[in-house]
Design a protein that fits this description.
Blueprint lengths: L21 H14 L18 H9 L13 H15 L14 H11 L3 E6 L5 H7 L5 E4 L10 H9 L6 E3 L14 H6 L2
Helix pairs in contact: 4-5
Length: about 200
């Protein structure tokens, strides 16, 4: 019988210091409670305890023959509709070749982090996986600290203070609206002030 090769060195050493995202760890606790027979209504992760509506199942079945890989930048028709939407509602002219669409924001944000050469500014509080993802991308987040007194909102002053901590000419700001986990919603004027 062949001896197994040691796995040491197979995975990056810095990854051994990481731990599961708190929301994923909590999800595992919920699954354990369900296995133990507890009646749990689990609404996290966009999951519903209710069945998928029959009309949706029919539509999926109708297109089940479409089984090819999608274009790397996303479905062309969808990207064109994104351009039209932003032109109509935001009066912003986008170039369809300057953005991608994909199946989930978390992986797209992470891929952006890994390819971006500058510093990443992260307002706090932030979604539980953003800071660890920044670390996995080989960067240290520049935290833009918000607080309850200002409604957990990023202000131009806080953004400028965070940007001054950066040593790169390019900076990436991760800003969600509404904020997650705070639920903070920015007005159009507040967003414009951050430009």
């Amino acid at each position: 019988m062949k001896e197994k090769a040691p796995a040491e060195g197979l995975v990056r050493a810095d990854l051994s210091k990481s731990s599961p995202a708190s929301n994923l760890a909590f999800n595992e606790e919920i699954k354990a409670l369900k296995r133990a027979g507890r009646n749990i209504y689990h609404f996290a992760f966009g999951l519903s305890p209710f069945p998928v509506p029959k009309c949706m199942v029919r539509h999926v079945q109708e297109f089940s023959h479409v089984n090819e890989y999608l274009p790397m930048s996303g479905i062309a028709e969808l990207r064109e509709e994104v351009v039209k939407f932003h032109k109509k509602y935001d009066n912003i002219s986008l170039d369809v070749d300057n953005f991608v669409v994909g199946p989930g924001s978390k992986e797209l944000i992470y891929l952006t982090m890994t390819t971006f050469s500058g510093d990443i500014i992260l307002p706090t509080p932030a979604w539980t996986t953003y800071a660890p993802q920044i670390g996995l991308a080989g960067k240290t987040p520049i935290l833009a600290e918000t607080n309850r007194d200002i409604g957990w909102k990023l202000t131009p002053d806080i953004l400028e203070e965070a940007a001054e901590k950066s040593n790169t000419s390019w900076k990436l700001l991760i800003l969600t609206n509404p904020g997650n986990p705070s639920g903070t919603c920015y007005t159009d004027d507040q967003l414009a002030a951050l430009r």
